[in-house]
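Q: I'm building a small set of examples for a reading group on sequence design. Run inverse folding on the following structure and report the sequence directly after it, with nothing in between.
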């Protein structure tokens, strides 16, 4: 068996007035150019606090601070074996409070608000993001459950959803 490194990431699906903000991330070290939530790497000192990492990334990337949010919640924990690396991504959702600044720019790529009726299969997304986003749009946003996603190196779901 190949020894694998690990990578820990966060991603936030930010909601505002019936839309969700996604980032077309360009030039990432971890993924091909694609649509993702707002987030990034968990720093070494944050390994026991992915919530803090998600809030830091949200502020760094689009200028949204914790006090601009309502209903900030961890919704999915995904693990993906790439063959050389095990990636753990913590997916959060949050509502942007009325009167908070609305993100329009990000140095990591292009921001776009998508209607909640968007067909997620039309979006180019990394494997775990595609599973989490599709499930959340279809049914996960209607409850408060935390769910787990496991994908193998070929991108197939191998664990409970």
């Amino acid at each position: 068996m190949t020894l694998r490194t690990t990578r820990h990431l966060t991603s936030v699906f930010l909601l505002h007035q019936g839309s969700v903000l996604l980032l077309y991330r360009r030039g990432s070290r971890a993924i091909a150019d694609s649509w993702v939530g707002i987030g990034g790497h968990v720093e070494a000192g944050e390994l026991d606090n992915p919530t803090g990492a998600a809030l830091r990334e949200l502020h760094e990337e689009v200028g949204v601070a914790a006090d601009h949010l309502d209903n900030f919640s961890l919704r999915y924990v995904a693990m993906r074996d790439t063959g050389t690396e095990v990636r753990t991504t913590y997916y959060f959702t949050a509502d942007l409070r009325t009167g908070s600044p609305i993100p329009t720019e990000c140095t990591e790529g292009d921001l776009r608000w998508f209607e909640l009726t968007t067909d997620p299969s039309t979006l180019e997304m990394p494997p775990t993001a595609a599973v989490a986003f599709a499930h959340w749009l279809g049914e996960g946003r209607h409850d408060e459950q935390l769910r787990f996603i496991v994908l193998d190196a070929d991108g197939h779901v191998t664990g409970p959803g």
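The longest helix spans residues 50-62.
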